[in-house]
Hints:
The chain has two domains: 2-208, Alpha-Beta Complex (inorganic pyrophosphatase (n-terminal core)), CATH 3.90.1640.10; 215-336, Diaminopimelate Epimerase, Chain A, domain 1 (Roll). The strands form two sheets. It has a seven-stranded mixed sheet with strand order 2-1-7-6-5-3-4, with helices on one face. It has a six-stranded mixed sheet with strand order 8-9-10-11-13-12, with helices on both faces. It is 42% helix and 22% strand. It has twelve helices and 13 strands. A hairpin with a 2-residue loop joins strand 10 and strand 11. The protein is α/β, with parallel strands linked by helices. It has helices spanning 17-31, 46-58, 71-80, 145-156, 162-175, 184-197, 202-208, 214-225, 246-256, 279-284, 288-298, 318-336, and strands at 2-7, 10-16, 36-40, 61-64, 95-99, 120-123, 135-138, 228-232, 235-242, 260-267, 270-277, 302-305, 309-315. The chain is globular and about 60 Å long.
Amino acid sequence: MFVQVRKFGQEIANTPLEFFGSVKQNLAKMLEQGRNAFIVHGNADPDALASAYALCQTFSGRIIAPGGIDRMSKVVAEALGIEFEETLDRDNFDRLVILDTSGPEQLGELRCLGDDEDAIVIDHHGRNQNWKSRQYYCDEKKSSCCEIAYELVKLAGRPLPRNAALALLVGILTDSGHFRYGNRETLLTFSEIMSEHDIGMREPIELIEGEMDLSEKISQLKGAQRLKYTRVEQFIIVTSFGSAYEASVSKSLIQMGADIAFVGSQRGDEFRISARASTQMIEMGMHLGKLLEGIGKETSNGGGGHPAAAGLSGKGDVRQMLDLCVAKSRKAIKSLLPPRH
């Protein structure tokens, strides 16, 4: 196994597993000293929230969620009693730890932390050069940030409260697409957490599959009503525009039959786009995270994520950005198709 790590400003690619293990041990020791601000991306999903919660329950600190958390995270937070703050008072903390955030742009008002060399970044998305941190830990082999958080908890040798363990299971389930995008290690970690805390599948699934509220249902219906689509051979690319629940709407469009879905929203001069891809697209080699990262660099915005789920945000006109996403994805699909004879 090889990983990508930046340590003390040095780029280290194809790093042996033994070195990676020592980095994790050093991180665990650092987190044990002083008070940590565990910072997650805006509109934080369950993977981000659960990662921060598990580390907060193991090491001293607070959860900071600039821009708040998404609907499913709110359900998890209410059920498990997870507390968080939306503003950061740096004087209250000895250390800033940024979790599950593919780029500084996802931090909203705290995006300036991308230039903070002393902040610790822990992530599982594609390596992002916009982070200036001297201690940047990125393991793309993990399907969720929760798996990394669990490793750090184990290295600390401290007991994990049952509620934190349940939150980790929810984070792993959601970010791996119910294991569709996971691997052997994902299943082993999930099974280990279940066994150690006597948690069955029913508990995390019930948290995930809670009743959808009315506003999200309406957003999904409006998203379908406003969709536009284009074909590339037998594949369908869909775009839609709304004001909320971009991730939920993009997922629903994939379930309706789209192969790639881009859903955007506009707030003043800032936009946000959520993207999803079908399993067939991923098996062909599509990587939405790299696609949107490239668009982000090209347009001086921030993009990135996983092969099947990614995001793009920044300043600009969302409709123009959606058109650019379609053009780039059309080109990417054509490059993945076998040559015609």
